[in-house]
Amino acid sequence: MTVPGTRPASYAMMEMVVEQGDTIYLDNLRVLYVYPPLVFKSGRQEKFYWRTVRDVKKALPYARLATIEIMNLNRELYYMPNDAARKKHISDFQSRIFRQYEKPLRNLTINQGKMLIKLIDREHDMNTFDIIKAYKGNMPAFFWNTIARFFGSDLKSEYDASDKDRIVERVVTLVDAGQL
Question: What sign has the CA pseudo-torsion 155, 132, 163, 41?
């Protein structure tokens, strides 16, 4: 039994138009992306694809979060009166970011970390090395790139949606559309 003035959870509100006594219900449909089916030549290729799906799903929210944080930082830095205040603010920002995101980011696998580097470049249109260099200078950027290379990655790597990263682009599109 339902309470008067409420509706069961299974109901949805829809717009409707009445034309000449006929009721037409209106709804917006999501965009549906249709790609040709993937044909895997081996089990290894299929495993690589599903690992890419897993890594994109794990890293994409952090890449988007990084872009939002960088945009907020840029807005805050714009209103700083001088370079000393900017440097102090960047240092405080770095400390806050490390405290807030260090634990979940440490739980990423090496492949998910590599994917995060690619996706940050995709989302921000600037590679991670250049982002660090812009805010902290050459030495910290070189230091972090050396650490990344120790784990088999490169902060200078560029995202190439049309060639080497087209599978990643396909997965990101499908994840965004809710199809994966």
Answer: positive
